[in-house]
Amino acid sequence: MGIVKISEHIHENLRLTSAALSRSINAQAEHWLRVGMLAELNPALCYGEICKLLIQAERDSQADLNTQDNIQGAA
After folding, report:
1. Exposed (0-12), middle (13-18) or buried (19+): which is 28, by Cβ within 10 Å?
2. Which residue in 40, 30, 22, 29 sits closest to 7, CA to CA?
3. In this record, what's one Pfam family (predicted)?
4. Measuring CA to CA, which of 22, 50, 63, 64 is 20 to 30 A from 57?
């Protein structure tokens, strides 16, 4: 984990948005970074499609964890 310097204006937007969406400031910043990164890598996608990608990635991650738990439980 590292420290990222951002402008006071962006930090204020993070504070306001994180409070409105019941997220921590760090969680809101990470969300915006993930969405922005996917938007740059996939310029044809709209915000809703990017959110669907994030949700599917989380589902896949949870499925991987469940599979690992099942394998360990069977051993």
Report:
1. buried
2. 29
3. ParD_like
4. 22
The predicted model scores a pTM of 0.73
Domain hosting residue 16, numbered range:
8-74
The answer as to whether 29 is a domain residue is: yes
pLDDT tens track of the chain, all 75 residues? 788 899 999 999 999 999 999 999 999 999 999 999 999 999 999 999 999 999 999 999 888 777 766 676 666
Whether 30 is in a domain gets the answer yes
Instruction: Look at the chain and count its residues.
Output: 75
Query: Which residues have a Cβ under 8 Å from the Cβ of 65 and sit 6 or more positions away?
Result: none
Residue 23 lies inside a defined structural domain of this protein: yes
Structure tokens at 22: 């019941």
In the chain, how many domains are there? 1
Considering just the CA atoms, what is the radius of gyration of the chain in Å? 16
